[in-house]
Structures are given as C-alpha cells and as structure tokens.
Amino acid sequence: MSQLTTPLTLEAFLTLPETKPASEFINGAIVQKPMPQGEHSRLQGKLCAEINRVAEPKKLACAFPELRCVFGGDAIVPDIAIFQWERIPRTASGRIANRFDSSPDWAIEILSPEQSQNKVLGKLLHCSQSGTELGWMVDPEDESVLIVFPEQRVQLLKGDRSLPVLSQIELSLTANQVFGWLAID
User: Does any domain span residue 3?
Assistant: First the structure.
C-alpha cells in the first residue's frame, strides 16, 4: 500500500533551515543552487560593486548578491537582485527588511558550468512575468549576455554592444568590459 505525501508548500519551504549554497523553491520543488566558482564569484562581485557605485549614492537602486526573493508562488535567489530604492522593503524603524516579498526590478543570473541554460532562463522569465523590468543571463563560457525584457522579449549581446540597465541608473557596460574582469593581470 502506497502512502500519500502532501506536496511541500512555499510557506513550509520558508520554514526550512538555510542551505549553503542557497536552495530555491521553484514550481513546487526544492532546487539547490550550484556552489559558485571563480569566474562566477568574480563577475558577481564586480557587477554588484559597479551597480552600487553609481546607484546607491543617488538612492536610485541597490544590488544585492544572493538575496531570496519570494513572489509568484516561488522563492528564488538570483545571483544579483537589483531593487529600485523606493521598492526596498523596510522595517517600521526604517531599517532594511530581511524578507523581500516581491520580484526584483533587475535580476542577474551568472551561468555556472553545470547549470542548465533553460532552467536559468526559466527563472528570468518567471521574474519577467512577475514584473521584473530587466533580466540578464551572463554566460562566461560564451562571453555573451542574454537580455530578458518585459513581455519576455529576449536579445543576445556580445562584444562592444552596450548592455541595457535600468533607465534611472547611469551605467555604461559592454559584454567585453564585463568579461574583461575575468583577466587577472
């Protein structure tokens, strides 16, 4: 006789202990992210620093590495989640909240060698369906950035073509500049 099991709910997932690397709750299933490696860590750090360098002093936006975002029935952890300043959740005392119950304005995913491009793209499309203005899937192996725009329109950029950013952020980057950060001289 088989025993019936109740599927895990988002609420139940959110009560589970944190894992390293982070686990996500996508389409009713728990998925653990791969452990970041050198290229991934370098790109994540540099992108966060560059975005925050231009956006934070003007209180336009803030880039958060590995931030759990709960929205649309899922709990995802983009490699970088960028929130416009006025959308950053705050506590009653004005401090940043620990829980972010909305989609980021801009989500960046950096592909690791063992990751499925389709699964990562699926996360960015879920973000787009839930109100995210911009998504990037950064592929270090191909040195390309797949852009996800509203209405799930996509564009692949390489070389010296300018990468789109949130409209209020004055940041100019190309794929060549981003992947140039991987060279350590």
Answer: no
Count of domains in the chain? 1
Helices and strands in the chain, H and E counts: 4, 10
CATH at 167: 3.90.1570.10
Q: Kindly report the backbone phi and psi dihedral angles of residue 128, in degrees, each rounded to the nearest multiple of 5, phi listed first.
A: -60, -40
| Measured CA angle at 148 (ends 118, 18), to 5 deg | 60
Asked, for residue 124, whether it belongs to a domain, the answer is: yes
What pLDDT, in 10s, does the model give residues 101-116?
Answer: 999 999 999 999 888 9
In a domain, 6, yes or no: no
Alpha carbons 70 and 123: distance in angstroms, whole number: 12
Give the model's confidence band at 89: pLDDT under 50 very low, under 70 low, under 90 confident, else very high. very high
